Amino acid sequence: MNAQKVLKAIAAAAFGFAAAGTASAEVSELKMMSQYGIGYMQLTLMKQEKLVEKHLAREGLSGTTVTWARMAAGAAANDALLSGSLHFAAGGTGPAIILWDRTRGNIGVHGVAALSSMPNLLVTRDPRIKTIRDFTDKDRIAMAGAGSSVQTTYLQMAVAKEFGIENFKKLNPLMVNLPHPEGLRTMLSGSGEIQSTFTSPPFQNQALENPGVRVVLNSYDVMGGPNTFLMVWATKKFRDENPKTFRAVMAALREATDSINADRKRAAEIYVKEGGGKDSAEKILKIMSDPQVHYKLAPDRILPYAQFMHQVGTLKNRPESWKDLFFPDIHGEAGS
User: Fold this and answer.
1) Are 233 and 89 a contacting pair, CB within 8 Å?
2) In the chain, % of residues over pLDDT 90
C-alpha cells in the first residue's frame, strides 16, 4: 500500500467514523485477525479457547460475534483496518508504527499491546554470503511485507550501521515480498534466484535444519538486545466508541499471555492443533523455550526502532517515549 493510497484510505476511514457518530451501541461483530508463526501465540489461544467471547460476556456483551481472519503481512492488516473490515490488526512493529504516524490527528491508530519479543534471522543457503557486505545486486532476499515489514527496518538499521545512514536503503532492491512459509519454501528449493530469507520462528528454525543454511544477521544484534517483534494495534475511534469491547480484548490478551508463560507446553499443543504447520508440539515447545523468546504486553526497545524510522524519513513524527505509540491501558507496564 503506497503512501497516496494510505492517505486516501485514512480519509475514507475518518469520514466513515465521523458519519457513524457517537452511538452508544457497541459493535455486534468483532473482527480480529492473526498471522503465521509462534509470535502470535496469544491470538491463537484467544481464538481456540474463545477468550474474547469469555470477556465480552463479562462486559455484558455475550451476543457479540467474534470472527477471525488470517493475513500474511502487517501491510495487509493495515489495509483491512482502514477499510473497516478489521477492528484489531496484528503484525510486525513496522507497519503498526507507520500507521500510527499517518493517522495522527484523525482516526488515531495506537498500539494495544506487544505480543512477543524474539530474534528474527536473515538466513541464506548461498555459501558466498557470510555478512550483509557479501550481498550483490544479483541476490534476492525473501521477506513478508517487504518494504514496510519489521524485517525491512531491521535490515535497514544494519545497513546504516555498516554503510552509513545515507545508504540505509542499499539492500532494498534485493527484497522480494513473500509470506514467511512461501519465502522459506522458495529459498530451500534452490531453483530460483532467492537464496536468502529474513524470517521469524518457527520458519528460521526450519531453515537452519537444512545443511548449508547459515545465519547472516540476528535482529537482537541489530537492536542491542531483546526487541518487540509483533504487536496488536487499533484505532482510537474504535476504542472510544467501543470501550467494553476494547476492555474485553485487552483482558483476553492478558489472560492468554499469562497462560502461555504459565504453561508453554500446553500453548504449543494448542498452536499445533490450530494448524501451525507440520512441526510437532515438542518441536514448537523447544523453540518457545529459547530464553530469547518472550511473551509480554509491554514493548522491548520499540522506541529506538521507531526513532530510527523517523531519522531516515519513514516517519514524519518522532515519538519521545514508547508510551506515545500505545494506548494508556499498558502504560503501567515496564516497557522501552
Assistant:
1) yes
2) 78
